[in-house]
From TrEMBL:
PROSITE patterns: ZF_RING_2. One of its GO terms (cellular component) is cytoplasm. Residues 7-42 form the RING-type domain. One of its GO terms (molecular function) is ubiquitin protein ligase activity. Keywords: Metal-binding, Zinc, Zinc-finger. One of its GO terms (biological process) is proteasome-mediated ubiquitin-dependent protein catabolic process. It holds the Pfam family zf-C3HC4_3. This is RING-type domain-containing protein. The keyword Plastid does not apply. InterPro entries: RING-FYVE_E3_ubiquitin-ligase, Znf_RING, Znf_RING/FYVE/PHD. It comes from the Eukaryota. The keyword Transmembrane helix does not apply.
């Protein structure tokens, strides 16, 4: 995976989830579930949804 695809928190796993309602995709599911607000726009995270790239 390129650096652009890596989780911006752990920098180890692939960024594979999207935050609702803001829509940013910057973390892996494991890290995303630990956050209360988006690290990019600071909006409240209502839900973390796993994304599958095909």
């Amino acid at each position: 995976a390129g650096d652009n695809e890596l989780c911006k928190i752990c920098m180890d796993a692939i960024a594979d989830c999207v935050f609702l309602d803001c829509g940013h995709m910057v973390t892996c599911v494991k890290c995303g579930k630990l956050l209360n607000e988006c690290p990019i726009c600071r909006s409240n995270i209502v839900r973390v949804v796993r994304v599958f790239k095909s």
